[in-house]
Amino acid sequence: MFARVQKFVALDWQRKKLLVQAWFLLGYLKLLLRRKPFKKLVAGLEMHREPVGQPPLDPESQEIARSVGWAVRVAANQTPWVSTCLVQVLAAQKMLENRGVAGVFYVGAASVREQTSSKFQAHAWLTCNDEVITGEAGHQEYTVVSAFSWQ
Asked: How far apart are CA 148 and CA 92, in angstroms?
């Protein structure tokens, strides 16, 4: 615990601010997902049924996207609740939208065969300028069901 505090104290104020914002946003969105349908949470976003091309970002916007992704991933590992890939994607999306950085997040599904049955698994990941910002682990194994973009 003390080592975590030392690492946090050693960060510059911008990274501290990003981490704190991400941590609280993860909790807020976790609660919202329990109270509101997913459809309402993404109501302001443009929905697509397949992967979409993204406009190129300037280097400053791409660096903002990477910093937000870092903050969300680190904060998600420090929450006392489970911060699923969907919660992480929604938090990163809100943080990026507030900073004027465009992107796309995907929701994908995969079929997993077990001995007696098949199950579906879902995953969410977010990209900016075709670079995965959150949800990178294993995203290639999922077929895109929906994509949501913002400008």
From this structure: 13
Q: Which domain, by its residues, includes 74?
A: 2-150
Bridging pattern class, strands 143-150 and 46-48: antiparallel
pLDDT, one tens digit per residue, over 17-36 is 999 999 999 999 999 999 99
Kindly report, residue by residue over 63-96, the tens digit of the pLDDT: 999 999 999 999 999 999 999 999 999 999 999 9
3-state DSSP call for residue 80?
coil
In total, how many domains does the chain have?
1
pTM of the model: 0.89
Q: Which of 89, 24, 100 is nearest to 62 (CA)?
A: 100
- Among 66, 58, 57, 56, residue whose Cα is nearest residue 14: 66
Of the candidates 96, 103, 104, 108, which has an alpha carbon nearest to the alpha carbon of residue 138?
A: 108
